[in-house]
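Weekly modeling sync, notes
Attendees: S.R. (lead), two postdocs, one rotation student

Agenda item 3: backlog of single-chain predictions. S.R. asked that every request posted to the team notebook include the full sequence so nobody has to chase files. The rotation student volunteered to paste the first one in as an example of the format we agreed on. Action items at the bottom.

Example entry:
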Amino acid sequence: MYKHYIRLDSENWIIKAFSDGFPEEILETDILLRETDQRHFYLGDFIFSPSLFEGSQPKYRYINNEIITEIKPLTREQKLIPIRSTRNEMLKASDIYMLEDYPVTAEQKVKVLNYRTALRDLTLTVDINNPIYPILEL
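Predicted structure, as returned to the notebook:
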């Protein structure tokens, strides 16, 4: 018989699932789900060797002796990663306007400076679920 265990994080998200049929250190805090003649891990009746994560986020939770499927919400910092990446590309694209010999008027230069400031400040004020990026209008 093989024992199937799960390991939880501090919020009861399943972060590891394994069988003692394979070399794995069993911690005191690991939870024994079942004993079976199946060597490979089954999370539920029909979930064989599941991927426990959706990207980097856990997708199974163990609450009141039940496995619940839900995806752990991204933190604000995690949601800001693609926003920062887009913002950085926009800053990079506007670098050319900052060159001293690039032909822009003083008024246009102020618009570019304001645009770049708005881009830099974006992560402080952005709605992370619906980011709206500033537009450079010269």
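Discussion: group reviewed the output briefly. The first strand starts at residue 2 and ends at 8.
Action items: rotation student to repeat for the remaining queue; S.R. to check formatting next week.
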